């Protein structure tokens, strides 16, 4: 029996070494977190595993990944540091085994409700990189028997490897975003520098002065929009924007969005219409985030439309999803550009000099929709127009 147990332990460590090599080769943070939770469940023989990351600045824990995550909006859920098991692990930088979590007042039951798994027993370890705690890794419900000191030891080893891999992925992600941001800042900053030189000229007349002031106003607005969008995207990619899921009427949301954008459409002599040919079912989602997506799509349809054109917003439900579509009668998008529309900072070459924008709006929309377990699609025909369609699961649980 002892030999069998020893062989099993050696196999787990062999598997851990293999997992560690796999983690070191992954720089996509979401993929990495999923691999870590799968590995934790495997090496500890547990029903499930989860990761919570710690934001030292905000002093908050964010639920980021779980092997049994069926509710996509759980990613980013804030778990209290004070009075929670994960909070104790992070605060004390110590592992913890709890054989009966239901009788532990620190158990945060909201995660279990969302993942549809009742936590009976738990093994948690801190994730520490360079003497800094970055989160907690938890194995949930031992499949056979109870969690042991050997389980704790092997999860600590995995946690040490995982923490380094997470920090490396974060650095890679941040450096990539920062490099793109710095590159995009150069254009408005160059315009502002040119404007400032013109203002210093003694021979500048009133008409030229007004034009220079207009450039400064336009470019500073662009910089503000760009930095705001950049921060939104960075938080979405890092999972630090919590989603607040609630049941709501999508028809009312669409009516509100169209009403909010009517003035902007009228300014450009465009018709903005909403057509709902059927009663829409309630959906469970983050209402404010979905509104952000719809408003962005309508705004784009206004900005890229032809004079005296039309924007049509429609919605219907099919099978288990709600489909929201925004159609414009603009000049359309070239097939070669469609695949890049959701890339960060991408702007169509045919309109980048005539329509002001950050190139981040669609990337943010895509992140929000995918966080809801949905998809966003585009169809376009040159000279005819473009339709963006958001497909969201009708989740009412």
Note down, in words, how this protein is organized.
- With 397 residues, this protein is an alpha+beta fold.
- It is 47% helix and 22% strand.
- It has helices at residues 2-24, 29-44, 85-92, 109-115, 149-199, 206-238, 250-267, 287-303, 335-338, 361-371; strands at 46-55, 60-66, 77-79, 96-98, 122-129, 132-142, 246-248, 271-275, 283-285, 310-318, 321-328, 375-381, 385-393.
- A six-stranded antiparallel beta sheet has the order 3-2-1-6-5-4, sandwiched between helices.
- Helix 1 (2-24) runs antiparallel to helix 2 and helix 1 packs parallel to helix 5.
- The longest helix has 51 residues, at 149-199.
- It is globular, with a radius of gyration of 25 Å.
- The mean pLDDT is 84.
Note the beta-strand portion: 15-25%
Distance linking N and C termini: 47 Å
Oligomerization: single chain
Biggest beta sheet summary: 6 strands, antiparallel
List segments where confidence is low: pLDDT < 50 over at least 5 consecutive residues.
none
How many extended strands?
13
Q: Helix coverage percent of residues? A: 40-55%
Number of helices: 10
**What is the structural class?**
alpha+beta
Rg of Cα set: 25 Å
Please list the strands of the largest sheet in the order they lie side by side.
Answer: 3-2-1-6-5-4
Mean pLDDT: 84
**Form type:** globular
Order of helices and strands: HHEEEHEHEEHHEHEEHEEHHEE
């Amino acid at each position: 029996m002892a030999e069998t147990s020893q062989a099993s332990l050696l196999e787990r460590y062999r598997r851990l070494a293999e997992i560690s090599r796999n983690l070191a080769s992954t720089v996509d943070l979401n993929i990495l977190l999923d691999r870590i939770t799968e590995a934790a469940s495997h090496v500890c023989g547990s029903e499930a595993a989860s990761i919570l990351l710690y934001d030292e600045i905000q002093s908050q824990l964010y639920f980021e990944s779980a092997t049994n995550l069926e509710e996509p909006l759980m990613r980013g859920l804030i778990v209290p540091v004070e009075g929670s098991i994960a909070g104790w692990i992070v605060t004390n930088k110590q592992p913890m085994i709890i054989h009966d979590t239901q009788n532990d007042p620190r158990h945060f039951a909201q995660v279990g409700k969302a993942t549809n798994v009742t936590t009976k027993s738990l093994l948690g370890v801190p994730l520490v990189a360079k003497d800094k705690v970055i989160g907690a890794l938890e194995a949930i419900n031992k499949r056979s028997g109870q969690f042991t000191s050997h389980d704790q030891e092997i999860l600590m080893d995995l946690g040490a490897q995982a923490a380094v891999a997470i920090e490396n992925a974060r650095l890679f992600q941040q450096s990539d975003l920062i490099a793109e941001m710095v590159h995009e800042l150069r254009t408005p900053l160059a315009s502002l520098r040119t404007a400032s030189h013109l203002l210093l000229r003694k021979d500048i007349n009133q008409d030229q002065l007004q034009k220079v002031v207009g450039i400064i106003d336009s470019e500073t607005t662009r910089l503000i929009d760009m930095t705001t969008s950049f921060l939104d995207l960075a938080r979405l990619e890092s999972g630090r924007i919590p989603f607040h899921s609630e049941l709501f009427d999508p028809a009312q949301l669409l009516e509100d969005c169209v009403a909010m954008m009517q003035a902007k459409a009228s300014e450009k002599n465009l018709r903005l219409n909403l057509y709902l040919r059927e009663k829409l079912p309630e959906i469970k989602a983050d209402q404010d985030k979905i509104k952000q997506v719809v408003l962005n799509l309508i705004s784009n349809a206004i900005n890229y439309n032809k004079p005296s054109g039309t924007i049509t917003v429609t919605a219907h439900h099919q099978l288990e999803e709600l489909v929201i579509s925004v159609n414009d009668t603009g000049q359309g998008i070239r097939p070669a550009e469609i695949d890049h529309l959701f890339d960060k900072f991408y702007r169509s070459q045919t309109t980048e000099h005539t329509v002001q924008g950050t190139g981040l709006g669609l990337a943010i929309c895509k992140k929000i929709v995918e966080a809801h377990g949905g998809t966003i699609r585009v169809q376009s025909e040159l000279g005819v127009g473009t339709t963006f369609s958001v497909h969201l699961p009708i989740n009412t649980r």
